[in-house]
């Protein structure tokens, strides 16, 4: 099923809850578009003076994850229009590179799974760190995504509970 990962881990590293100030359907659409934007823009963020990072997101489809490209976004947005979806699962790879002059040397990446549960004006994000050096803490990843969703909207649409 598109958006749901059947083998999502039971052991969660972090759970964060937010109050949603927009409809669930609109929030889901904004979330999918925000994560797609993070993929397509290859936004480089400074982790430290000589390390940069970028994100790669995928969306669940049963037992696999599909890279969140334009085609996948179109598929999930159609599914969201078709009916109410309560859970969306995402895979996130945070890629780190050490900058050495004009070249970039890849470092070990972090691999996360995120489960987003939408329920009556609330959003719960469950974060599982699969592997990697954990340069970014699970709560930092969730808060980064929430900040990006709020930036994408004309007003703040998610507030911490």
Total of domains: 1
- The portion of residues forming beta strands comes to 35-45%
- In N-to-C order, the SSE pattern is EHEEEHEEEEHE
Record field, number of beta strands: 9
What is the residue-mean pLDDT, rounded to a whole number?
91
Which word captures the global form?
globular
Q: Quickly count the helices.
A: 3
Helix/strand/pairing category: alpha+beta
Oligomer kind: single chain
Would you identify the regions where 5 or more consecutive residues have pLDDT less than 50?
Answer: none
Measured on Cα atoms, how large is the radius of gyration? 16 Å
- Helix content estimate: 25-40%
Q: Main beta sheet, described?
A: 9 strands, antiparallel
**Distance N to C terminus:** 30 Å
Describe what is shown at a glance.
Helices cover 29% and strands 42% of the residues. The protein is α+β, with helices and mostly antiparallel strands.
Task: Please render the helix and strand layout as text.
Blueprint: E1 14-20, H1 24-41, E2 45-48, E3 51-61, E4 64-67, H2 70-82, E5 87-100, E6 103-106, E7 110-119, E8 122-131, H3 138-152, E9 158-160
Antiparallel strand pairs: 1-8, 1-9, 2-3, 3-4, 3-5, 5-6, 5-7, 7-8
Helix pairs in contact: 1-2, 1-3
